Amino acid sequence: MNKRKILYICGSLNQTTQMHQISQELPEYDAYFTPYYPDGYGYIKLLTKAGLLDFSILGGQAKERTIKYLEENNLKLDLYGKQNDYDLVFTCSDLLIQKNIRDKKIILVQEGMTDPENFAFHLVKNFKFPRWIASTSVTGLSHTYDKFCVASEGYKELFIKKGINPDKIEVTGIPNFDNCKSFLDNDFPHRGYVLVATSDMRETYKYENRKKFIQNAYRIANGRQLIFKLHPNENYERAVEEINKYAPGSLVYHQEKIEPMIANSDVLITRFSTVVYIGLALGKEVYSDFDVESLKKLVPIQNAGTSAFNIAQIGRRMLAETENSNVYVVNRKRIRHIPLRKKLRLIRKLAKVKN
């Protein structure tokens, strides 16, 4: 008997590793993975092919890192999710809901921090503009998923305020941010410094006064060692030149893992980065463009690294319910006791056979 199949739609490396962890908790099912893709959105597909969206998870470094990670971990790659008729889909984002998964059972998994509710957020929510213009501030607002796995009770409250059906939200915690104390055991050589986690705002065509940001960090450090951890997507040469000019004597890291650096720091300075939650969970002195007291209410639950299991259990339960409720007989083209979406797929298959 063939295993039932699950598609995991990945994105950034953080989103990809989260999907991998979830799949490891569902070994009885056949797992396939794909980078994020724009199926069903013609104009976005054209922009992606032209390389104009390489700053996003649709292309560029994010897609390259995802494919590399999947290959290095011997995971089955199904670009654009077209090889199989999947029983369940886990996706890292609902800014786009791909055409070929809209009739599937879908579980949306929160990646981390969501962007602030700016003007674009209200355009999407109130005037139905495309969700992608508001980035992660509108996470969940597609409403085209069966369950939405979120980081904490604080985030559940936030998403409900945004207009998301509370019955669809499950507080599971999120992989990569649910066992922060494990980062304390590391071999990073420095301790007791001020760590600055930069962003790729400029690379994604957003304005940032980097000079002011660096100077503010230099002031907070007040003579203590400054370490800058650059966002992986950043223009390294430009960033280093700026840091050397406005915060001389600072150490700069680029592609290395940030978690050990946060664990060994005394102070963490960020702008709009989910890594702020690691600092808060570890009791660090934290600076952010967000209100820190509000962030404390949103910190992902620390459950000793069991979030992937919690999310997998929801998928397992959905598949079991589907299997139990989908008792059907196809005899003389009669179809009974089948959910509407699967019924439509079977009707299409029967029509093809007839033709």
What keywords describe this structure?
355 residues; alpha/beta; Rossmann fold
Mind explaining what this structure looks like?
The structure is a single chain. With 355 residues, the protein is of the alpha/beta class. It has two domains: 5-178 and 303-321, Rossmann fold (3-Layer(aba) Sandwich), CATH 3.40.50.2000; 180-298, Glycogen Phosphorylase B (Rossmann fold), CATH 3.40.50. Helices cover 36% and strands 12% of the residues. It is built from twelve helices and eleven strands. The chain has a six-stranded parallel sheet. Strands 9-8-7-10-11 form a five-stranded parallel sheet. Strand 8 (226-229), helix 7 (236-246) and strand 9 form a beta-alpha-beta unit. It is globular, with a radius of gyration of 22 Å. Residues 327-337 have low confidence and may be disordered.
Looking at the structure, the CATH topology of the largest domain is: Rossmann fold
Query: Helical residue percent?
Result: 25-40%
**Number of E-state strands:** 11
**What number of structural domains do the residues give?**
2
Which CATH C-level class of the largest domain is it? Alpha Beta
Topology pattern, helix = H, strand = E: EHEHHEEHEHEEHEHEHEHEHHH
The helix count comes to 12
Percent strand equals: 5-15%
Write the layout of secondary structure elements.
Blueprint (H helix, E strand, L loop, with lengths): L4 E5 L3 H12 L5 E5 L7 H8 L10 H13 L15 E4 L14 E4 L9 H9 L19 E4 L2 H10 L6 E3 L22 E4 L12 H12 L4 E4 L6 H11 L4 E3 L5 H6 L2 E3 L6 H6 L3 E3 L4 H7 L8 H19 L14 H15 L1
Parallel strand pairs: 1-2, 1-3, 3-4, 4-5, 5-6, 7-8, 7-10, 8-9, 10-11
Helix pairs in contact: 1-11
